[in-house]
């Protein structure tokens, strides 16, 4: 007697046991005992005992009967009780618990099908999948539909799913509304993502199976559109039943799949963001509000493309629209994440358009914004108490990330880089006093670096401007990345133009609020101007140092009782002045006298004596320099540098004075 006849007789005999639990265990026992007796490929019963199709039919028939018994448990447990009765509720809970315990008996049949040696993708697509999906739809049971779809996805190989993706996705949209379609779609996308990255896109197939498996994915670019189309269909149908967070989780899984498997397809990313914006807009029209968990998923949707494609997000049309659905706090956190990712990847900001677009995305971190809902337009700047009252530690971290962005503003051509600095200053000026404390110093240091770059690599009217040979050895070329200067640019930009830019930046409102930091920046600018032989410019910065010291730092110290600020600042001025080499005798004497005057007026005797001792080095330099020996320190102020009681405070240097005096602006 052929093996197939005996097997089918046994299946029919099992119909005599119709009790759901007993029938399930009986058929499970039958499946286990006949595992080695099927007429499968490489089996001694194959041939005269039957074919692989007979073995598949036996397992499928047994699976369908087991699923019917499993579904019947739900029906029998609810019989005999009136609707809405307490006994019916207790019975339903007990039934669901029993069915949860027995579901593995049903799923084991699908696992046995997938492990059969004779199972291939064609047989799976033509014989197995249609009948399993039909049984899944016809059973009309919520638990059975969700469990069987999960078993199909996790039991059969991933390359089988790629070939039969269309019917599998179509079935998901036909499930009952209460079935958690989100879990099914996310599970499928994760499996396909791992398979494609491991085998297809990285070409890790063996030479024997490469050609056969490539037929399963003949059109690689059709996988994502197919997933996106069916995902959108399912989510539209189940929007009323699924929580918003589950819908967003599904879109996050789809976005991860698209960015990892198709990093070059920015349109795929934008399509997912567009659909997410539509979902959120519909939910908002219905009066829904984003919960904290939903906002967390939205932030993840914004972070996924940033990690995958970097600043290419600036070309996405719907990225900013999705960002606007978060409130100011959420947008601020996302802005910090964007800044951190850009800094980590060291992405250069080399165009004004890129800089403007980036500042649109990180707007809450660089200025105060209104509490508005999503909008495609930038919100007007306003005083937002929730922003300006951030804890100091969090606010400082946020501004530190924004400040680190400024090191990425670079361009091979000095003129373009200077335009970027000018645009950056205009944006930073809208951020308010609290943010200027963190943003202005890196901007000034960037401008000073640009001056050095111009001196190394630029021709002014055909004459090469360069530093000394010793300084050139200390600097590396920013353009070529080696120790030699091999690129020369012709530009109309002069170091004096950038010094004026620095002067205007510091002499506006920054020095009034942060005089100690402003003095340090003035000292850096004066030192560089002196090193380049620009005495007039250096002297103007020194004059501004003493103006800031007298008009801003001394009153600030008097109001805060900070006794260390004045001596520390004077010591820094003295230390920097000892490195000046290109001042004329008259200007140098004025600097020394003014410094001596302020050291003699320090309130503490200890600080006064130490500072006067240090100031003596300005009169007796230890190395040969171009500086003439001035007279010993004289506490009488020099008329060449403005004093605290001088009402005019007008600089005698025309190039900088034309830009406007800080004291005149006061």
From TrEMBL:
<comment type="similarity">
    <text>Belongs to the VPS35 family.</text>
</comment>
<dbReference type="InterPro" id="IPR005378">
    <property type="entry name" value="Vps35"/>
</dbReference>
<dbReference type="Pfam" id="PF03635">
    <property type="entry name" value="Vps35"/>
</dbReference>
<feature type="region of interest" description="Disordered">
    <location>
        <begin position="626"/>
        <end position="666"/>
    </location>
</feature>
<dbReference type="GO" id="GO:0005829">
    <property type="term" value="C:cytosol"/>
</dbReference>
<feature type="compositionally biased region" description="Polar residues">
    <location>
        <begin position="380"/>
        <end position="390"/>
    </location>
</feature>
<keyword id="KW-0653">Protein transport</keyword>
<dbReference type="GO" id="GO:0005770">
    <property type="term" value="C:late endosome"/>
</dbReference>
<feature type="region of interest" description="Disordered">
    <location>
        <begin position="370"/>
        <end position="393"/>
    </location>
</feature>
<dbReference type="InterPro" id="IPR042491">
    <property type="entry name" value="Vps35_C"/>
</dbReference>
<dbReference type="GO" id="GO:0030906">
    <property type="term" value="C:retromer, cargo-selective complex"/>
</dbReference>
<dbReference type="GO" id="GO:0042147">
    <property type="term" value="P:retrograde transport, endosome to Golgi"/>
</dbReference>
<feature type="compositionally biased region" description="Polar residues">
    <location>
        <begin position="654"/>
        <end position="666"/>
    </location>
</feature>
<protein>
    <recommendedName>
        <fullName>Vacuolar protein sorting-associated protein 35</fullName>
    </recommendedName>
</protein>
<feature type="compositionally biased region" description="Basic and acidic residues">
    <location>
        <begin position="370"/>
        <end position="379"/>
    </location>
</feature>
<feature type="compositionally biased region" description="Pro residues">
    <location>
        <begin position="627"/>
        <end position="640"/>
    </location>
</feature>
<dbReference type="GO" id="GO:0006886">
    <property type="term" value="P:intracellular protein transport"/>
</dbReference>
<keyword id="KW-0472">Membrane</keyword>
<keyword id="KW-0813">Transport</keyword>
